Amino acid sequence: MDHDHEGQRVSRRRMLAGVSSVGLGALVTACAGKSPVTTSTGETVALQAVTDADLTALFAGARTCTLTASTTQGPYYFDADKIRGDVREDKQGAKLRLALQVQDSETCKPIPHAVVEIWHCDAGGLYSGAEAASGGGGGTPPTGPPPTGTPPTGGPPPGGDADLEPTDDKRYLRGAQVTNQRGIVEFTTIWPGWYRGRTIHVHVMVHVGNEKTLTTQLMFDETLNSAVMATEPYAQRTGRDTFNDGDSIYQPSMLLKVTKARDGYVGCIVLNADPDHDGS
């Protein structure tokens, strides 16, 4: 069975149970602080080559079993009908490979066959399926700080846990994967851009069975954010107004462990979910 199942609905996730992650060995190498990885070698490393010791190093500190902080799903979530690992499509930006492990917050054991969805804005602050809304109504996010006394635009409209009705047919930077027996999924994406009122972030939703078990966000160290935002195409936009320390959602536990690779960045994190919803 192929790693990428383009276009298949998330609702068919059980058919994909046990899908392996191409290039996981390269992610282990990077996140464990070993030698840098490259696309030419990393993409060919099989899952079977990854040892238990490698995985332990990759997800250092995973056994704390602290329940991952939940957030609202925000105004831009919808089922994008895309089971796939590479969500970039034609979007330009710093390459970011994400390795996410889902485990039970009570037992610390991996949760296989869970569906992990991610979605985030592009380098210009736009969300697929909602380009007009995320661009402040005109399709292009505003640049520079807002005039004094003017409410910020270009950020999300009011929203909570209601699914978005897409207003365009774009689906970039959205996708889902099914966790393998070790509870791991891998995505290839780009470093997100920014929009007013929020720090740089990636949305994540974990489904166990037919339930939305965990909705959270992933964030980045501000030193890395600054370095990436100084490069193209991010540098074309100025006036970023919200950083981690001023973000209403940010928590230190949401920070990805990020390593620089030769072709971009690699980020890793453990997501502790509570399938039985007892708060533990």
UniProtKB/TrEMBL annotation:
Region of interest: Disordered: 132-168
Taxonomic superkingdom: Bacteria
InterPro entries named among the record's database cross-references: Intradiol_dOase_core (IPR015889)
Gene Ontology molecular function terms on file: iron ion binding; oxidoreductase activity, acting on single donors with incorporation of molecular oxygen, incorporation of two atoms of oxygen
Biased segments, Pro residues type: 142-159
Protein name in UniProt: Protocatechuate dioxygenase
Organism expressing this protein natively: Amycolatopsis camponoti
